[in-house]
Amino acid sequence: MNHLKSPVVLFITKALIIFVVWYVVYELWLLPDGRLDEWLSLNIVAVSNGLIKFFGYNTWAVHRVIGNGENAGIELVDGCTGISAIGLFLGFILAYPGSWKQKISFCLMGIGVIYLVNILRIVVLVITQEEWIEFFDITHDYSTTTIFYIVIFLLWMLWVNMADGNFKEIKKSDDAITS
User: Fold this and answer.
1) What is the pLDDT of residues 115-166, one digit of tens each?
2) HSE, side-chain direction, 13 A CA sphere, residue 58
3) CA distance 49 to 39
4) Over the stretch 161-178, which tens digit does the pLDDT of each residue have?
C-alpha cells in the first residue's frame, strides 16, 4: 500500500484528475457553447493575418478562415484553438508540487506560450499552403500537433526544475564560480 502514497503515483493521479475534469468541462460545456473557441479562433486568425502581412504576404481573413492569395485558406475550427493543449499543460503544472502563487504565475506564462505557438502554427500552415502545397497535409496532420506536445513537455520540464529548486542550486554554483 505504500506505493500508492509515492510521489509519482500521487502526481500521476492528480494530473489525470485535473485533465479529466478539464476535458469534461471543455467537451460538455465550453465546446458546445462555442463562445470561447469562437473568440479565440477569431483572435488567432486576426493576429496571424497581421503577422503574415507584416512579412509581405497578401493574406486575407474572413471570420475563422485565413488564406493567402487565391488559396482556399484554412479554417480554425473548434478544437484547433489550443484549448485542449492548455488543459494538458495545466494538469501537469497543477499536479506537481510547488507554491500556488508560483503555479498560477507559471500557468499564465505557459498559456501565453501555447497561444503564441498556436499563432506560429497558423502562420506556418498559411505560408505552407501558399509556398509548399505538397507539404501542407503532413504539416497540418503531424508536425504542428507534435510541436504542441514538445512545447508542453519543455514547459513542464522547466516547471519541474523551478519547483524542485534546481535553478536556485545552479544560481548558487554560478555565484560560487564567479567569486
Assistant:
1) 999 999 999 999 999 999 999 999 888 877 788 889 999 999 999 998 887 5
2) 3
3) 15
4) 988 875 454 445 444 544
Q: Concatenated DSSP letters for the chain?
A: -GGGGSHHHHHHHHHHHHHHHHHHHIIIIIHHH-HHHHHHHHHHHHHHHHHHHHTT--EEEETTEEEETTS--EE--TT-SSHHHHHHHHHHHHHS-S-HHHHHHHHHHHHHHHHHHHHHHHHHHHHHHHH-GGGHHHIIIIIHHHHHHHHHHHHHHHHHHHHTTHHHHHHHHHHHHH-
Q: Tell me the sheet residues that pair with 61.
A: 66
Q: Read off the amino acid at residue 121.
A: R
**34 Cβ neighbours under 8 A, 6+ residues apart:** 78
Residue for grid cell 498556436: 118
Grid cell locating 143: 508536425
- The Cα 35–Cα 136 span in angstroms is 28
Residue type at position 76: L
Q: Which of 31-45, 49-63, 159-173 has the lowest mean pLDDT?
A: 159-173
In single-letter form, the type of residue at position 132 comes to: W
Q: Which amino acid is at 114?
A: I
